[in-house]
Amino acid sequence: MLEELAREPQVWALFLDIDGTLIDLAETPEAVVVPEGLISTLSRISNLLGGAVGLVTGRAVSFADQLFSPLALPIAGLHGAERRNSAGDLERLPQDDDFEALKRSLARVTADWDGVIIEDKGSAVAAHYRQAQQWAGALDAVMQSAAEEAGADYTLQRGKMVIEIRPARASKGEALKAFLDAEPFLGRKPIAIGDDLTDEAMFKVANELGGLSIRIGELRDTAAVCAIPSPDALRKILADLARQA
Ligand SMILES: O=P(O)(O)OC[C@H]1O[C@H](O[C@H]2O[C@H](CO)[C@@H](O)[C@H](O)[C@H]2O)[C@H](O)[C@@H](O)[C@@H]1O
């Protein structure tokens, strides 16, 4: 389904989610592994597409950069709330003192909740319960009330065994549009690949713009139009594509 990229590389732009898409999910946010060969695969595909490859992730840009170093692709982080374009210019929200206090309070409230992880991502915060499913309900309630306290500038974002509070003004769909407004993405058709609720916004934009939306996993309750069964299957497809570059 990505053969078109090799046939007409000047037509397409590729947007890739990270966790659960390019890399396998792990028990904790820090435990993820970038498989050998993936960085060079992405670099070759980026060259093939004239640089029109972007990462679109819920991670902070700084964390994603560490994962994929030395590769520094254009990237939207924090579900689109921060973005680095192909020239390397990074837009990031200013520090918000009230939000800093809210993150500290979340960490305090959940300190004794065994297995719950509060991931401080700067302008967003994620509460993970993958290792603490007994706390899922209580965590949901705490995060809902924290999101209300954070006010209209923030919104709740649910994902795989995670509940997040993130800036409301951006989404992965808006990030796709912003990338497509400038070279080397300008005028290309987007292919968006992701696995989670946050990726639905970019699936919709890719569909609207005549591109392609691909979900990792099952094709159920999604705007995506086709599916690839796993991150491993996607990596194999990308490696084949890179060999043609
Ligand atoms: O948009 P993504 O790149 O898919 O990022 C979404 C969230 O991914 C991370 O959490 C998820 O992956 C963890 C590591 O595999 C896993 O332990 C967790 O259960 C998943 O929800 C990341 O920690 C979040 O900050 C991202 O927003």
TrEMBL record:
Keywords: Hydrolase, Magnesium, Metal-binding
Top-level enzyme category: hydrolase
EC number(s) on file: 3.1.3.12
Domain of life assignment: Bacteria
Keyword Methyltransferase found: no
Gene3D superfamilies (alphabetical): HAD superfamily/HAD-like (3.40.50.1000), Trehalose-6-phosphate phosphatase related protein, domain 2 (3.30.70.1020)
Catalytic reactions of this protein: alpha,alpha-trehalose 6-phosphate + H2O = alpha,alpha-trehalose + phosphate
Cofactor(s) listed: Mg(2+)
Listed InterPro entries: HAD-like_sf, HAD-SF_hydro_IIB, HAD_sf, OTSB-like, Trehalose_PPase
One GO molecular-function entry: trehalose-phosphatase activity
Metal-binding in keyword set: yes
CDD domains named among the record's database cross-references: HAD_TPP
Pathway: Glycan biosynthesis; trehalose biosynthesis
Family: Belongs to the trehalose phosphatase family.
NCBIfam families with a match to the protein in the record: HAD-SF-IIB, T6PP
Name under which the protein is recorded: Trehalose 6-phosphate phosphatase
Organism from which the protein derives: Rhizobium lemnae
Organism ancestry: Bacteria, Pseudomonadati, Pseudomonadota, Alphaproteobacteria, Hyphomicrobiales
